[in-house]
Amino acid sequence: MGASLPDFLISIPAAILSRHSYSFAGLTFLLAFSSAQGQQSLVCELPEHQDLAEEATDAGLSPRSEQLQIEAGNFEAGVGDDPTMQMSGGVLLRRGDRLAGAEKVTYDPDAGSLLLDGAVRYEDPQARISSESAEFAYESGRIRFEGAEFQLGRNNSRGAADVLQISEDGTVSLGEVSYTTCPPDSEDWVLQADDIDLDSSEGTGRARHVKLRFQGVPILYSPYLSFPITDARKSGLLTPELGSAGRSGNELRIPWYWNIADNYDATLTPRLLSDRGLQLGSEFRYLTNRMDGIAQFEYLYDDNLANRNRHLLNFNHRTLFDNGWRNLIDFRQASDSNYFEDLGGSLSTSSITHLNRSMLFDFYGEHWTLFGRLQDYQTIDSAIAPTDEPYRRLPQLAASGSWPDRALGMRYGFDGELVYFDRDVGVTGWRLDLAPQIEWPLERAGWFITPGAMLEHTRYLLDDTEPGQRDEPTRTLPVASLDAGMILERSMNSSRGLIQTLEPRVLYVHVPHRDQADLPVFDTIVPDLNLVQLYRKNRFLGVDRIADTDQLSIGVTSSILESDSGKEIVTATIGQALYLSDQEVSLPGQQSFTSASSDYIAEVRFPLYEHFNFDLGHQWGTGDDATTQSQARLQYRPASDKILNLAYRFRRDSLEQGDVSWSWPLSQRWNFVGRYNFSFRDDEVLEQFFGLEYESCCWGIRLVSRRHISTRDGTRDSSFGLQLVLKGMTSVGTAADKLLEHGILGYTPDIE
């Protein structure tokens, strides 16, 4: 039977627990051992135990009360010279969401403590502790558990300590500690330390003589570790990476993080390449109220294979001014043309041909957008001739204005640009382009029509012209257009409540012919035809050429949607441009455009059946070689951890590739991953990797073997990656998960 206490007796332990409530909260800092947990497909089963909260609720102790509540089978209170009080027969103490229980509790006012003895248990929302004895010394604010075992959070973190002590200021001290996320009957990995101190005021933890064991084998030792126990940043070593770097040999990275200030930090990464030497990488980040940016520098002294020093500099900066202006800086510099091929580590970086260097200022106002830029490029592909290198813009000034809803609903606009193009060879000089325009949009429910007119005026002031070329050529062209479309909708007879939309659109453009053969070509190209390009008024990208045309662009988009959720069932678009006259304007070395129509452009996106999704983009014309380019992708995903991707890409006279990638479980613990990218045109494999993932409830491992083309001349690299993941702790080895995320569409690592 529980007995009630007089109010004057309850008030004393209530004060005790009120002081210790802060110390109890400090116990949750043990969570610092565990990094943030993602969703896990395998969960360790912890042994069942009697829940103190259920026990306290059954005893009638309310979790809503902030007063100390006590339930015990027997109470014995001394009088006179013996003021101690003993509670036994199963004691429960509760204050709010914090509970403690023991077989016996002794209250000693002289010592200023509560002594818990026999099957001591403690619970709060973040932790559970059990021990044989505990002392709550409320005079010193100390809580001490002897022979404690603990469980932390919801990620199955658990451990044991000979001594677990919490001081009044929130400092937690543990002696002879072990920690793991594995179940009690399987300590596949365990972290051991002689002692650990967690200081909540500083937000740091310190451990001495730390050993990390995996399958009973020590894989890491440190005489001293300091680590953060909050989300705050802290200087120190990050997890090393070890693996193969292909032609550069084996690789070891040991990053060191430096928390300089609240808004500044840096990472220094020594990278040892067994066949090349020691490379030093650095990254500096900064953030203020108006500025942010990142500076990266890599340096390899005396490359053993290339016999030279090598470096890479990358700087990105942004400034936001109070008056609406913004400044952006982007600068990249490599020591040589083969830097990314030798040290980049991927097919995408090895294909880089130019590095951008630019500084710009821009302003976005209610009606005006202003833009100023200085831009240069470093050409790192030695196969590019000097006459084909891009021009420098020194400077580029642009302005764009828009004034909608004017008289009669008119919309006025203006685009202007002044650029000086510079290069070591060829024609250089100034280009001024002015393009005022007017539109009259008419919109009603279900349709729109927008007639428009624009005057395009371009003037050049050139140097180093070729013989017979004018120094100050000009061009003035009127552009007339009429854009019209409809938005139709109907309900379909379906139990799913489907809606079909139909959106036809027609754009008519007329531009008269002007001879432009004497105009230079600074930055103008003919882009690939797509649905965006179909509705542009100039088939050239850039203003060095304005295509003469009398054309009609026609397209239609249709979608089927679920009326309740708006979910897209299928969307299809098809379009074509009809040319009512020949186009004589062309780029140097190209023939005039005399076709009566453009290729057809089509895009389709829809789920084929249940877990199948299909995307198709296709461009085709007439004649023997009807298909110009095509790409298709089929994805089968019956579950979040089951992915199969099939892709095909074709571009006439350029490429034809097939790609298959997958992530598929072989069993509950084993997963098979891979990618195979093949060029049908060259009859060779571009990239392939195959790997296995193994996952237990508290650790996992990834093994990936990769072979890919790493240089522009077709040289291949082979590498092997091994990544050991200790759940709730860290990962050791190569970052194989980054390769899988990049190479397999839809892949997300389950092992974290």
Task: Write up what this structure looks like.
The protein is mainly β and 752 residues long. It folds into four domains: 7-234, Lipopolysaccharide (LPS) transport protein A like domain (lipopolysaccharide transport protein A fold, Sandwich); 235-342; 465-607, no CATH class; 610-752. Helices cover 6% and strands 56% of the residues. The chain contains six helices and 43 strands. It has a 31-stranded antiparallel beta sheet that branches. Strands 1, 2, 3, 4, 5, 6, 7, 8, 9, 10, 11 and 12 form a twelve-stranded antiparallel beta sheet that branches. β41 (699-709) and β42 (716-726) form a beta hairpin. The longest helix has 20 residues, at 7-26. The chain is elongated and about 115 Å long. The two termini are 49 Å apart.
In short:
With 752 residues, the protein is mainly beta. It contains six helices and 43 strands.
The assigned CATH architecture of the largest domain is Sandwich
Write out the CATH superfamily name of the largest domain.
Lipopolysaccharide (LPS) transport protein A like domain
| Name of the CATH class of the largest domain | Mainly Beta
State the secondary-structure class: mainly beta
Give the termini separation.
49 Å
Question: How many domains would you count in the coordinates?
Answer: 4
Assign a percent range to the helix content.
under 10%
Number of strands: 43
Classify the fold: give the CATH topology of the largest domain.
Answer: lipopolysaccharide transport protein A fold
- How would the global form be characterised? elongated
> Number of helical runs?
6
